[in-house]
Here is the input.
Amino acid sequence: MDLRLDGKTALITGGSRGIGKAIASSFAEAGAKVFITSRKADACEHAAAEIGHGCEWLAGNAGSPDDADRAIDTCIDRFGGVDILVNNAATNPYAGPLIDADLPRWQKTLDVNLTAPLFWTQKVWNRYQKENGGVVINISSVGGLSTNPILGAYDVTKSALIHMTKQLAPELAPGVRVNAICPGLVKTDFAKALWEDGKGDQVAQAYPLNRLGEVDDIAGAALYLAADTGSWITGQILVLDGGGLVAFNKVG
Ligand SMILES: NC(=O)c1ccc[n+]([C@@H]2O[C@H](COP(=O)([O-])OP(=O)(O)OC[C@H]3O[C@@H](n4cnc5c(N)ncnc54)[C@H](OP(=O)(O)O)[C@@H]3O)[C@@H](O)[C@H]2O)c1
Here is the structure.
């Protein structure tokens, strides 16, 4: 068994930078035809050129069912299917105690981080994977397994995404495997407020493996789950956090 995806097609939401782009690159290098989406067309175009290997893209909001329809239809039209769906796009518009969260930002967090992975999975299932099988990978977070003074709203959605993963795994088996990855702190734009200005050094020292995550740490695990190496794995939650959660049971 090797880490190859020859003949497979993969659709990755939020694939224009950070973890999503690294997953797209690793899948493309492993032989998959890769399709990425994100909100900004220029970022998608630029990322697709860097990913290479015939990577295609469509700009759209992951939280929009219409944009999901367009992306999935275009991917199937160009590549013939969606063997691997990576629900990676997420948002975190609110930082503060959950008890004070305003409803518009709560709703946006819920829409993009939880409702979207459900309807992307439903659409891909109904249009392709129900007949052809496949893999779904949800990018959750160690925050979904812990508590945090300022990330509560985001963490609730990531926790529910973990449960959704477990719920869908038996529902979509045996043809489709559904797993989640929970990264700790990874040096991307999304998490910049948590690692910039030296803050990351403190977190890195607290992690038993003494460093923050790199996007390729997450991409390697996603490739393992997507390829035949993961063929007996479904409904599982893979924590990649340098040992932070088991050592301290907290994020950052
Ligand atoms: N970095 C971390 O420490 C960390 C830790 C745990 C979990 N995660 C999870 O990892 C995933 C990727 O995060 P990242 O750190 O790689 O973030 P990132 O570097 O900020 O990249 C986010 C990507 O998602 C796209 N995006 C954002 N909102 C979107 C929307 N509503 N619709 C479509 N695309 C959208 C962005 O492009 P556009 O701006 O063009 O839309 C970009 O391509 C997320 O699910 C996040 O929750 C990250």
About this structure: The CA atoms of residues 149 and 206 lie 18 Å apart. The chain is about 45% helix and 15% strand. The pocket of NAP is lined by residues 13-20, 37-40, 43, 61-63, 88-91, 112, 139, 141, 183, 185-186, 188-191 (CB under 6 Å).
